[in-house]
Amino acid sequence: MKTGICTVKMAYAIRRSALKMVHRAKASHIGSALSIADILAVLYGQVMHFDPLQPYSQTRDRFILSKGHACVAVYAALAEAGYLSHKDLHTYGEDHSWLMNHISHKVPGVEFSTGALGHGLSFGVGKALAARINKEEWITYVLLGDGEMDEGSNWEALMFASHHRLCNLVAIIDCNNLQSLTSVSETLSIEPLAEKLLAFGWDISDIDGHDHRSLSQQLAQRSPTKPRAILARTIKGKGVSFMENQVDWHYKNPNDEELDAALKELGGN
Which of 79, 69, 61 is nearest to 17 (CA)? Predict the structure, then answer.
């Protein structure tokens, strides 16, 4: 684990950059990006093994954003981690930019392009199995949305990972209870999620997804025989009071006044 990095400051920086990117591009999904900023700050600031100067090093840990629409948060995290410059973020959503509106593997530090939901965990299972076969020690982390758990392919991947005892695989589920147009519970209830994952043979933690101490401790833990799932209970739009728990911010982008107000809440300008 890394030391000397303030992940709280990093999470604030990720949120500020994500807001600016979405505002500049008049793009969507800022609520989804804000809910995962703390998870990304702890992963990139403390937990994962990587070298931004050697983005394709064989020993690197792999991170896969399955909820690819929340890409601005990952792009911002990559800038904080040294893969990108902050000037690169200004190109988000522009014609011919690598920084597409859904995450793209053309960006240094991005393992897999995702857009259609339900693909990231299956890909991550394949990476973890490859590491096992090749006797390599890197870890695969996959970040999914709770609404994304509606997709049946995730449950196939859960069974496969448990059957093969992929203890080098960590799934983080961003449980903010909102998706697209309404709540997850109204769209297609996935609860009791923890009990279901336990029944599928996974090692489970159910935590506050904005508590950096809990995130750091739980993301670093391993089961010797089971894949690990972390249910990160989060707030969609976290950090901006008028966006929190508001489903409108799945698709809405902030105007000039809303951006200024949001950045002031996050200690920026």
Answer: 79
pTM of the model: 0.97
**C-alpha dihedral, 74 to 146 to 142 to 72, nearest 10°:** -10
Instruction: Give the fold, CATH level 3, of 7-265.
Output: Rossmann fold (3.40.50)
35-60 burial: b if 16+ Cβ within 10 Å, else e:
bbbbbbbbbbbbbbebebeebeeeeb
Instruction: Decide: 263 and 15 in contact? Cβ < 8 Å.
Output: no
Which residue carries 């983005």 as its tokens?
55
List the one residue out of 246, 230, 237, 228 whose CA is nearest residue 265: 237
Contacts of 195 (CB under 8 A, 6+ apart): none
Reported as a single tens digit per residue, the pLDDT across 103-155 is 999 999 999 999 889 999 999 999 999 999 999 999 999 999 999 999 999 99
Place of tokens 């500049």: 24
Question: Hey, where are the domains in the chain?
Answer: 7-265
Nearest 5°: phi and psi at 22?
-65, -40
